[in-house]
UniProtKB/TrEMBL annotation:
Protein name per Swiss-Prot or TrEMBL: 2,4-dienoyl-CoA reductase
MF annotations from Gene Ontology: FMN binding; NADP binding; NADPH dehydrogenase activity
The organism of origin for this protein: Actinopolyspora saharensis
UniProt keyword annotations, A-Z: Flavoprotein, FMN, NADP, Oxidoreductase
Domain (NADH:flavin oxidoreductase/NADH oxidase N-terminal): residue spans on this chain: 2-332
Highest taxon in the source lineage: Bacteria
Record Gene3D superfamilies: Aldolase class I
Cofactor(s) required for function per UniProt: FMN
Classification via PANTHER family: NADPH DEHYDROGENASE C23G7.10C-RELATED
Length: 346
């Protein structure tokens, strides 16, 4: 698959999944090298490294990766080199947590649905409007200066991702994070230039895309995880998304990674394998490349979906269970598929 100057060896990619295992300065650790290295050697066409914050207050937890300091860039460089050296393509997903910020990590005493206060090492979340996410701290409504600062952070993180040697850049624009919060009337109640009708709600997401493109080389591809619909009355609709996607194409987005129903925990959430592929035809008609993820466990599901319904597939949890999922899905004689170091296993 070709995305700008990048040639990908195949269309099954590791879906970005937070490991909550950064060092105390937000940099990748030995865990990340082992985890991503195994999956890169396991035959995925691209490794999308987990949501990596553009600034300290845009992390979800204290265990998140970041890309705002030299220490972080240096550690990401080792990770990107490792992924490339074993035959995959290194990509990183940038993250802006917004109101889904400053919570616990899954295995600590607090968990992801519990706020961590500044007294316990947390921070004040920022969002378009002071509407809390499901029991987390009430966010502070972003001022024009906050918005400017965050857009600057986005551009710096994109530049740092390039310096670290990543070959594709992703953005967590869905799942109820800041990009999605500005887009959805259910999270954005602003009455200034950044909220209200669709045009105003699009302003922040499109400014983020412009900031990404300003910091990221023209020859390298940009992938945005995009919510197609909130599946809730009054939320983002597929008509809104068509406008968003057309505008993102003009601003230099190469592929949208689609999902739906993830703004708030109460939203209906598609759980059937490949359910979100039903939204792809409308976006493909606009000339946009598409990918999706969701409950894929079997090779036949991959082969049904790609390239008929979507241009690429991201696989998440199945690859946590099995780093060699992509090699197994490829099938064929082991000597043609598996790394030569493993041939004596067959
Ligand atoms: C442990 C875990 C961490 C995740 N972290 C992220 C993330 O950092 N960024 C993101 O866009 N999605 C994240 N997701 C969602 C996955 O990328 C994926 O879209 C979702 O799990 C559905 O695909 P699957 O059924 O193949 O796992 C995460 C999912 C899991 C299970």
């Amino acid at each position: 698959m070709q995305l700008r100057d990048l040639t990908l060896p195949n269309r099954v990619w590791l879906s970005p999944m937070c490991q909550y295992s950064a060092d105390e300065r937000g940099a990748p650790t030995s865990w990340h090298l082992a985890h991503y290295g195994a999956r890169a050697a396991g035959g995925v066409g691209m490794v999308m490294v987990e949501a990596t914050a553009v600034a300290p207050d845009m992390r979800t937890t204290a265990g998140d990766l970041g890309l705002w300091s030299k220490h972080q860039v240096d550690a990401h460089r080792r990770l990107a080199e490792l992924i490339r050296s074993v035959g995959s393509v290194p990509a990183v997903q940038l993250g802006l947590a917004g109101r889904k910020s400053s919570h616990g990590i899954p295995w600590d005493n607090t968990g992801t649905r519990h706020p961590v206060s500044p007294a316990d090492g947390g921070w004040q979340p920022l969002a378009p409007s002071p509407l809390p996410f499901s029991g987390l701290t009430t966010p502070r409504s972003m001022s024009a200066a906050d918005i400017d600062r965050v857009l600057g952070d986005v551009e710096r993180a994109a530049r740092n991702a390039h310096r670290a040697g990543y070959e594709a850049l992703g953005l967590q624009g869905s799942n109820g994070y800041l990009f999605h919060q500005f887009l959805s009337p259910l999270a954005n109640e602003r009455t200034d230039a950044w909220g209200g009708d669709l045009e105003r709600r699009l302003r922040f997401p499109l400014a983020v895309v412009s900031a990404l493109r300003a910091g990221w080389p023209a020859e390298k591809p940009l992938v945005i995880r995009t919510p197609v619909t909130d599946l809730l009355d009054g939320g983002v609709t597929t008509d809104d998304t068509e406008v968003l996607v057309a505008r993102m194409a003009e601003l230099g987005v190469d592929l949208v990674d689609i999902n739906s129903g993830v703004l708030v925990p109460e939203a209906p959430r598609p759980s059937e394998p490949l359910e979100n592929t039903r939204f792809a035809p409308r976006l493909r008609k606009l000339g946009m490349l598409t990918a999706t993820s969701g409950s894929v466990t079997e090779a036949h599901q991959l082969h049904e979906a790609v390239p008929n319904s979507v241009d690429a597939l991201l696989v998440g949890r199945a690859m946590l269970r099995d780093p060699y999922w992509a090699l197994r899905a490829r099938g064929g004689p082991p000597a043609d598929v598996w790394p030569k170091q493993y041939h004596r296993a067959f």
